[in-house]
TrEMBL record:
It comes from Curvibacter cyanobacteriorum. Residues 133-157 are annotated as: Disordered. HAMAP family: SmpB. Keywords: Cytoplasm, RNA-binding. It is found in: Cytoplasm. The lineage of its organism: Bacteria, Pseudomonadati, Pseudomonadota, Betaproteobacteria, Burkholderiales. This is SsrA-binding protein.
Amino acid sequence: MSKKPETSSRIADNKKAAFNYFFEERFEAGMVLQGWEVKAAREGKVQLTDGYVVIRDGELYVLGCMINPLKSASTHVNPDAIRTKKLLMKKDEIKRLIGKVEQKGYTLVPINLHWKNGRIKCEIALAKGKAEHDKRDTIKDREGKREVERAMKSRNR
């Protein structure tokens, strides 16, 4: 029996994180999930917008990552959509992250969930918060790109 290739490697993106933070470093971590969560992820029922990563007892956890259960979920399973999910990384990487997070202004945010070799991985970033004027610059750049695209599109007609 051969495995089916995944149709889309991306499950969910956290677009709000790119707007609110500057990403310093990116890391890939495995996730401890229950069966119903994996099935719901296959259906795209995942939302990362309000997610953030915390460190407890030298381990990483994702909070605020919402995986909505499917309607056809089993009756013997009690699904919790906003359950705290553990991230799996090597101890030396976690220790390095703990040292960086303790510095002023740094935090860990989940960027996306994706498939890798049949497993769900969470890409997290060591991030520094943006000031209000930086967010305004981001908006200005985005609107400028849209105007250029519109001009090119109307010119090509």
